[in-house]
């Protein structure tokens, strides 16, 4: 979703802003813009990509050592040049970029119109900069103070950066609900939605908290105040991110790179958390809350999209191994349906970005009812990771492709470790089984590597079905969430309609869709309900559906029935979701590429969904 970047220092701002916007492209956007403060306050913005913005800005005045840049994911007003950020205030002396939604923008706009303000765009953001201007002029306040006072009138979410033509030495930032990071360099500052535009220049960052305002003034330190005007001491963090993780490293797309990174990302998720010698599992981040989790009356998992699918696998794992009742909820439903939550409940939020607005709100609700809140996040320092009582990072490294791949398998890995830890603590699993699972876990990265070797075969199968209009994905037990995830991957990047179903549910409706035109992907790995899945394959076959089966290496029964077979190495049933996801990720990737789709930035999608 919208990305913001800002710079003030001794270097020319334009190349830093453009590079920063490129780093933020992965978040998803439909227009881009910059504002540079030199002799003038120049805004350049247009619908389309950052490259379109560069073309547009060519030959224009792009001089200045202070500037702000934005990628917009449209909420209020269609994606066009006018609605793109930055926006000027009415007198064109101020400029703003914004990520979030000003919920009371309509009433604010009406009041401002009555006071003579005129608006050029349909955005809530333009209303905010007019409000700041109004406060600044009427109350004769310096910019930082005008921003603070204006924000006290705002309902909604924001991460903003503001420039003032009359003060070329300062950028004001503020945040509530949307993320914002300050980078501290030598005689220079950066401001961004996440650390990706900053890491190249400095590793020292400050994560702003909600309702904080930051003043970045040349020659001075970072000044942070609360919206109540309390002076705060910023806490400087050291970034762990590495620049090479933000580059494609020779792959055609980030998504392909991230699929192939999984042997490493999964190993990173496991590192230091399983101990073959002592036969134990430990998760440092939740150690103080383990007992509370083990005693929980109920665990509720809240998440969205792919993370919700990982949550479903988590439900099966925790119930199976630790014998604690688990419910998995869409965060967007949970937050609005008046759920029953008590102090004995533990709520686990799963989120790659750690910024998803619905997941965040669901957690806040759970916290307000006294539940213990635990995070499973990928982005270090993200909002969810900071508001939770405890948590385990997935350590998958930055995921740039909008379609989640390595983040999913790392989430499942961490949930597996959590379930194992809780099971050990509760004594709900025989020791021999625990050791068997631990030994199987250790081999997973190598088996993922092996599963990736099917890439050429997957590519061939993709070529056979790239023009299909629909796909069905079926699985049972642990493979049911895998079917859902496989279908989501395909639809989001190839725009082919795809549905995931529990295989047995097929008879209750979707079977009506099956004919010779319908490819059906069946995850038919050994163990679990294998025989029953074979019957489901027979049912599809009888109706002339085309079967693409994901099977355990060496399986001949499913192979005889299926039109195409994709083998994965044998492992314990609880770990199959990790391996079975690999060929499905590859299938969606190759189909999307063959259909000419923008794999890394699919239409309408945002990587970090910071609005509800
Ligand atoms: C799909 C995908 C989304 C995200 C969802 C939640 O490939 O990436 O469905 O899983 O938007 O995002 P996070 O995990 O950041 O909370």
Outline the secondary-structure elements.
Blueprint: E1 3-8, H1 13-24, E2 31-37, E3 41-47, H2 50-57, E4 66-72, E5 87-88, E6 94-99, H3 105-114, H4 124-139, H5 143-151, E7 158-164, E8 167-176, E9 181-184, E10 189-192, E11 204-207, E12 212-217, E13 223-226, E14 231-232, E15 237-238, H6 254-260, H7 262-270, E16 274-275, E17 280-281, H8 290-295, E18 298-303, H9 305-322, E19 326-330, H10 331-334, E20 345-351, H11 357-368, E21 372-377, H12 383-387, E22 390-393, H13 406-426, H14 431-442, H15 444-452, H16 455-465, E23 470-475, H17 479-494, E24 497-502, E25 519-524, H18 530-542, E26 546-552, H19 557-561, E27 564-568, H20 576-594
Parallel strand pairs: 18-19, 18-20, 20-21, 21-22, 23-24, 23-25, 25-26, 26-27
Antiparallel strand pairs: 1-4, 1-10, 2-3, 2-4, 5-6, 6-7, 7-8, 8-12, 9-10, 9-11, 11-15, 12-13, 13-14, 16-17
The chain binds fructose -6-phosphate.
Structure description:
It is a single chain. The strands form five sheets. An eight-stranded antiparallel sheet has the order 3-2-4-1-10-9-11-15, with helices on one face. The protein has three domains: 3-244, 4-Layer Sandwich (Glutamine Phosphoribosylpyrophosphate, subunit 1, domain 1); 248-442, Glucose-6-phosphate isomerase like protein, domain 1 (Rossmann fold, 3-Layer(aba) Sandwich); 452-597, Glucose-6-phosphate isomerase like protein, domain 1 (Rossmann fold), CATH 3.40.50.10490. The mean pLDDT is 95. It is built from 20 helices and 27 strands. It starts with a strand and ends in an 18-residue tail after the last helix. The protein has 612 residues and is an alpha/beta fold. The radius of gyration is 25 Å and the shape is globular. The structure holds fructose -6-phosphate.
């Amino acid at each position: 979703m919208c990305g913001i970047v800002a710079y003030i220092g001794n270097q020319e701002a334009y190349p830093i802003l453009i590079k920063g916007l490129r780093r933020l492209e992965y978040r998803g956007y439909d227009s881009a813009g910059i504002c540079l403060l030199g002799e003038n306050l120049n805004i350049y913005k247009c619908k389309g990509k950052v490259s379109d913005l560069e073309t547009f800005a060519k030959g224009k005045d792009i001089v200045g050592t202070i500037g702000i840049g934005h990628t917009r994911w449209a909420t209020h007003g269609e994606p066009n040049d006018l609605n793109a950020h930055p926006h000027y205030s009415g007198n064109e002396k101020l400029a703003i970029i914004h990520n979030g939604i000003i919920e009371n923008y309509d009433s604010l706009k009406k009041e401002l119109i009555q006071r003579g303000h005129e608006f050029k765009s349909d955005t809530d953001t333009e209303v905010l900069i007019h409000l700041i201007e109004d406060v600044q002029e009427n109350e004769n306040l310096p910019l930082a103070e005008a921003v603070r006072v204006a924000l006290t009138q705002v309902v909604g979410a924001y991460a903003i950066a503001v420039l003032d033509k009359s003060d070329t030495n300062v950028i004001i930032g503020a945040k509530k609900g949307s993320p914002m990071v300050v980078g501290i360099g030598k005689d220079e500052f950066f401001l961004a939605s996440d650390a990706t535009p900053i890491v190249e220049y400095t590793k020292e960052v400050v994560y702003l908290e909600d309702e904080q305002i930051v003043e970045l003034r040349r020659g001075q330190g970072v000044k942070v105040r609360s919206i109540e005007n309390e002076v705060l001491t910023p806490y400087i963090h050291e970034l762990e991110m590495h620049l090479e993780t933000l580059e494609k490293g020779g792959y055609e797309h980030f998504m392909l790179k991230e699929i192939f990174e999984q042997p490493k990302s999964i190993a990173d998720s496991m590192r230091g958390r399983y101990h073959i010698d002592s036969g134990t599992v430990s998760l440092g981040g939740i150690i103080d809350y383990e007992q509370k989790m083990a005693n929980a009356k109920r665990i509720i998992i809240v998440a969205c999209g792919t993370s919700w699918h990982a949550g479903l696998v988590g439900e099966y794992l925790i119930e199976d191994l630790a014998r604690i009742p688990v419910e998995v909820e869409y965060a967007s439903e949970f937050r609005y349906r008046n759920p029953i939550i008590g102090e004995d409940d533990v709520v686990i939020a799963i989120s790659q970005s750690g910024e998803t607005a619905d997941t965040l709100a669901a957690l806040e609700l759970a916290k307000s009812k006294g539940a213990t809140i635990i995070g499973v996040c990928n982005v270090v320092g993200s909002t969810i990771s900071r508001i939770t009582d405890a948590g385990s990072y997935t350590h998958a490294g930055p995921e740039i492709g909008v379609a989640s791949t390595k983040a999913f398998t790392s989430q499942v890995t961490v949930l597996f470790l959590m379930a194992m830890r809780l099971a050990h603590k509760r004594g709900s699993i025989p020791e021999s089984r625990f050791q068997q699972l631990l030994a199987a876990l250790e081999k997973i990265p190598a088996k993922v590597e092996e599963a990736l070797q099917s890439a050429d075969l997957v590519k061939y199968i993709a070529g056979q079905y790239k023009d299909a209009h629909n796909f069905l994905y079926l699985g049972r037990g642990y493979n049911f969430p895998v079917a859902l995830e496989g279908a989501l991957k395909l639809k989001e990047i190839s725009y082919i309609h795809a549905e995931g179903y529990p295989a047995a549910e097929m008879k209750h409706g979707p079977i009506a869709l099956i004919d010779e035109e319908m490819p059906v992907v069946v995850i038919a790995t050994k163990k679990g309900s294998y025989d029953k899945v074979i019957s489901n394959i027979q049912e599809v076959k009888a109706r002339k559906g085309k079967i693409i089966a994901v099977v355990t290496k060496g399986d001949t029964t499913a192979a005889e029935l299926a039109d195409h077979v994709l083998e994965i190495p044998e492992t314990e049933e609880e770990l199959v979701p990790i391996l079975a996801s690999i060929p499905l990720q590859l299938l969606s990737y190759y189909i999307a590429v063959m259909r000419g789709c923008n794999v890394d930035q699919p239409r309408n999608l945002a990587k970090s969904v910071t609005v509800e």
